[in-house]
Structure formats: structure tokens, C-alpha cells
Amino acid sequence: MKTRWRNLPPLLLLWSVAANALDAVDTTQSQAMIDFLDVCHDGTVPPAALEKVMGLPGTQLIVAQQNNSRRITPVQYRATLVSACRGEIPHLQPSEPGTRAEKGVEGLIGDVAPSLLWGRDHVAFLRQRLAAVKETQGLDEIVPLALQNLPEKVALSPRLYFVMGGRAGAAAIDNAIYIDLLSDAWRTREKNTPMIPQEIIEFFAHETHHLGYGEILERRKQSLRLAGGREQAWNFLASLLMEGSATLLVSAHGNWAELEKQDHIQPDLARLPQLLPKAQSLLRLTMNGRMSEQEHQAAVSDFFGEGYHATGACLLNVILEAQGKRGVFRVMRDPGKFLTVYNLCAAKINQPFRFDSRLATDLEHRLDRVDYSR
Ligand SMILES: [Zn+2]
Predict the structure, then answer these.
(1) Full-model pTM
(2) How far is the CA of 208 from the centre of ligand 1 (A)?
């Protein structure tokens, strides 16, 4: 990477730096959604406004997010918009047999439709909200904040969006990151505490960090040719490191006390006494090759919500205290060393929880070299 930069003529170099700077968030979809909801008041569905919303990349991201672990179709999403326009919750059938499609319909009926109905009654508020977030300062801090917390330099140029009408408050899909202003406003309507500018910047930086770290981890994983239990163990450690590092270093600025103050993670921090031993038994079973994919999926579901975030941040914080960022970067580069380095640091600063040393050494040895038997 360094050589490539050095060989660039000065003008091109300048252009590359500028290409990394983020100076705008795409707000087209939010604007189109507000305009759609605004003309819905008499209950007639405006076809042109509907088609405009459906055709925008922001809406495609919203639909894609609901297809991560659930299943919905653009036709179902369109039907949800049409019903909301008439002031009704849609009647939808799952698009295919199975839990994913059932969960998809649940999300549209339980989250998306009610927030759209609320939005239809609060168009002026949404216009104000969009105008306010358009003024968000500090977008140029996003990429540097992500980069300074990564163990290697990578090229980062995420596309940022403010959208409305999705199920999640925010999401990252490939190179696109969105914040859903309607979902955020609807979920915080009682206290009227939508995201403040600093939270917007930190959220975008957290997700940008994922993009960069994901690339670093994937490169390393490919070089190790992992499979079976070794791959399951790697994926689990990688998820802990992914969410733990972004949560502790980016969202909480490397400060545990600051992390503890953040409301959203508190229920999962309270689960740490259970999550730490669960992480150990999960890793032990995968390394013994005694977990089917189905059992593995069931075990990792304990870490959904913000379980990965809380567990990863807790372990990394011990390393940060004992060895500083250098130690954190070392395990981020080499997930196989996570447990051994943690144990060393925990001993140094008298943290009571330790991983079984045989398991830690086994992971270090078997996740650190190419398995040529394959
Ligand atoms: Zn995250």
C-alpha cells in the first residue's frame, strides 16, 4: 500500500485524499419519503411519489437490510407503503415457507408500518429533523476516526445515507451505511431524544471501522484456509473483535467508563458474568469439532443484540489497560492470539476472569498457521 502511494504523482495523491473525505450524506430517499407521506393525507396513494421512493438506492438498502436475517420482497415493502398511505397496517403473507419470511412480515407489520403511520402524522417534524441533520458537522472526522483505530491502513470511502421507512435504526450493507431518521424518531418519540450530531458521526465511524476491519480480517482468514471447527472458532473470535473494537475504541473513545454510560449496551454488559463462560465453552466445543452448524448457530445467538459488543469490548479493555493500543492491534491482526494475550493482561492487572490456558494455547497454535492437510 505504501509503495503505491509513493508512486502516485502529487496531483493524483491529492485527489485520492480528497476522495476519502466525506462531505455529504445522501438524503434523497428521506426527502422523497417525506413528500410521499405528505401527499397521503386524504388516503389516496400518489403513484409518482410512490414509484420515486421505490426506485431510490436508499429504499433498496432498507429492503436489503430486512433480508439480512429475515426475508421480505420489494412487493411486500410497496404494499406496506400503500397501506400506510391509507392509514392502515398492511395484510401480508410470508413470501416463502420458514421463519425468515415470517420474521420479515412481523418486522413490516410490527415496526415499519407503525413508524410510517406515525410519520404520516408528523410530516412537519420529519421535515425539521431532516433539515437539522443536514447541518451535521464533522463528517470529515468519520474516516480518520475509523482509520486511527485499525491495525493496518486500508482505503475507506463509504457511501453515507439518511433514509426513512426501514426496520432498523441504522445499518451497513456492503460499502453503504445508513441511519434511518424515521425509525430513530419513532423509537425515541416518547422522550423525543433522536440521535444527536455526535452520535451520528460516531455511528457512521463505527460502521466505517467495520468496513475496514472486515477487509483486514478477510484477507488474513483467506490466507489461513480455515474450515470446520477452526473456521467456526475464527468467525466467533472475529465477531468479538469486530464489535468489541468498534464499540470500545470508536464509540466509547477507548474509555470503559464512557461505554458503561451508554444506555443501549447496558443490558448486555449486565450479562457479562454469563457471556464470558459461554464464550469459553463455545470455543472449546468448536475446537473439539463437536458442534454441528445448527448447534453452533444456536450457541452464537446468545451473543446477538449487543452480546458480541459487550464481551469483545470487556476483553479488549483488559488488553488496552495492560498493553495499550499496541496490544489491542496485535490481537486484532491475529484473532488466534486473543485468549493468550487476554490471559497475560488479566494476570497483570488482576482481573479475575481467565480462559482455560490449554484452550488459549490451542487456539493460538491452530488459528495461526495454514492447515496443509486440507
Ligand atoms: Zn457494530
Answers:
(1) 0.85
(2) 9
Alpha helices in 178-306 (DSSP H): 181-187, 197-224, 228-245, 256-261, 266-269, 272-287, 293-300
- Grid cell locating 299: 450457541
CA distances from 229 to 284, 290, 340, 355, 364 (A): 10, 8, 19, 19, 14
CB within 5 A of ion ligand 1: which residues? 243, 246
Q: pLDDT tens digits, residue range 141-171?
A: 999 999 999 999 999 999 999 999 999 888 9
Range scoring the smallest mean pLDDT among 68-82, 202-216, 358-372: 358-372
CA 199 to ligand 1 center in whole angstroms: 14
- b/e code 202-222 from CB counts within 10 Å (16+ = b): bbbbbbbbbbbbeebbeebbe
Q: Could you tell me what percent of the chain has a pLDDT over 70?
A: 93
Nearest one of 343, 334, 341 to 366, comparing CA atoms: 334
Distance 230 CA to ligand 1 centre (A): 23
Q: For residue 106, how far is its CA from the centre of ligand 1 (angstroms)?
A: 24
298 CA from centroid of ligand 1 (Å): 20
Pure H helices in 56-122: 57-65, 74-85, 99-107, 113-120
Tell me the three cell numbers of residue 282: 463455545
CA of 197 to the centre of ligand 1 (A): 18
Residues 263-290 pLDDT 10s: 889 999 999 999 999 999 999 999 998 8
